[in-house]
Specification:
Helix content is about 30%, strand content about 25%. It has eight helices and 13 strands. The chain has helices spanning about 40-50, 65-80, 110-120, 135-150, 235-255, 275-285, 300-305, 310-320; strands at about 1-10, 15-20, 55, 90, 125-130, 155-165, 180-190, 195-205, 215, 230, 265-270, 335-340, 345-350. The strands form four sheets. Strands 1-7-6-4-5 form a five-stranded mixed β-sheet, sandwiched between helices. The protein has a four-stranded mixed β-sheet with strand order 8-13-12-11, sandwiched between helices. A two-stranded antiparallel ribbon has the order 2-3. Strand 4 (about 90), helix 3 (about 110-120) and strand 5 (about 125-130) form a beta-alpha-beta unit. It is globular.
């Protein structure tokens, strides 16, 4: 028995927000003082570092659970399964449903329960639960689905990654330009086919690193101090990722028994183009090699960083032939990898 992804789907929000749209923002330093550079300089430097040209935001009528349900329906249709046969719905997110203009996250009921409701699943033995694991949440959900299936506890699982980060950003913080909204979903099943999940690696670094990403006050000191926003220590995260993600990727690949030259694509969390490129180069350096030019498909340029949604969305676009100059075929080996709040890291080696 092997464990494979048998269907995928994503939801890409319709509101396109370009870097130019940030021109009227008043960016501040963390102490509330004016940022010394004009916004056009900020936008250009941002593009050079992150590679993000535009990002997607949900419309005001949609919440995280809504777009997750849309992606889930597409994954179920793609897998051609009856949703009543699902044993688990594992929903990775970080902030729950945050309505436009609200100051509270809503996780009652859980977002997984809301998706199950939206799918109109009657089966009470379909267990629905949420996962808070930072940006690596979808990959961790896949790892848990694999464990459930291999233990005999499940045959089919729906794993979702969705987020609406546009609802939790401080518009006076330049880091707000990174974040976006989106949803990706996959059906994970037991199968007699060759391939599937070959190996995985997970780790949580909390001793010094737990608060590299955190909730903090607006840089605008006149704002309500009880309303807080996603914040990060960008340089520390960058250095942490470069030090630890390549090692986890290597441990995962080595455990799979697959040679580095057999890896066709690496689907890494779309957080920052320069950081992702540096991670890939350090990973190949561990094998005394340089990465192939086309090994890392990217969606960040037009979709931004949608946290847990980036990897499943990238996978869905890739297998559907929607990433230019990239393709996959049966038997190809890919490596999933992510890093994010916690600080958490994980990787999965997978054969199509």
């Amino acid at each position: 028995m092997n464990v494979k992804i048998t269907g995928s789907g994503c939801y890409i929000p319709t509101e396109v927000v370009s870097n130019i749209d940030f021109a009227k923002h008043v960016f501040l330093n963390d102490d509330g003082t004016p940022f010394p550079h004009p916004n056009d300089v900020v936008a250009q430097k941002f593009l050079e570092i992150t590679g993000i040209q535009e990002r997607r935001y949900v419309t005001n009528d949609l919440n995280t659970s809504d777009i997750a349900a849309l992606a889930a329906k597409r994954a179920i249709k793609d897998a051609n399964i009856d949703p009543e046969t699902l044993d688990y719905i594992i929903f990775a997110h970080n902030f729950g449903n945050v309505k436009k203009g609200a100051i509270q996250a809503d996780t009652l009921p859980s977002l997984a329960a809301r998706v199950k409701f939206d799918l109109r699943i009657k089966n009470p033995k379909c267990v629905a639960y949420d996962m808070l694991f930072g940006c690596p949440g979808w990959i961790e959900g896949v790892i848990q689905a694999k464990a459930f299936i291999q233990s005999g506890m499940a045959k089919k699982c729906l794993v979702i990654g969705a987020e609406t980060l546009s609802r939790v950003v401080d518009l006076h913080d330049r880091d707000s330009m990174i974040y976006s909204d989106g949803a990706g979903a996959t059906i994970i099943e037991a199968t007699d086919e060759e391939g599937g999940i070959l190996a995985h690696e997970s780790a949580s670094f909390t001793y010094d690193e737990a608060y590299y990403l955190f909730f903090g006050n607006s840089f605008n000191i006149t704002h309500d101090p009880n309303v807080r926003y996603i914040k990060m220590h960008g340089r520390k995260i960058y250095e942490f990722a470069l030090m630890n993600v390549p090692k986890a990727m290597k441990e995962c690949l080595d455990a799979s028994g697959i040679a580095i030259n057999e890896v066709k694509k690496i689907l890494i969390h779309q957080a920052n183009e320069k950081m992702d490129e540096a991670i890939i180069h350090r990973f190949y350096k561990l094998y005394k090699q340089t990465p192939p030019a086309d090994v890392m498909p990217m969606s960040i340029h037009r979709l931004g960083n949608s946290s847990v949604a980036t990897v499943p969305t990238l996978y869905d676009l890739l297998v559907k032939g929607e990433i230019e100059n990239h393709s996959l075929k049966k038997g190809d080996v890919i490596l999933f990898a992510s890093v994010g709040a916690g600080m958490n890291i994980n990787a999965v080696a997978y054969r199509m």
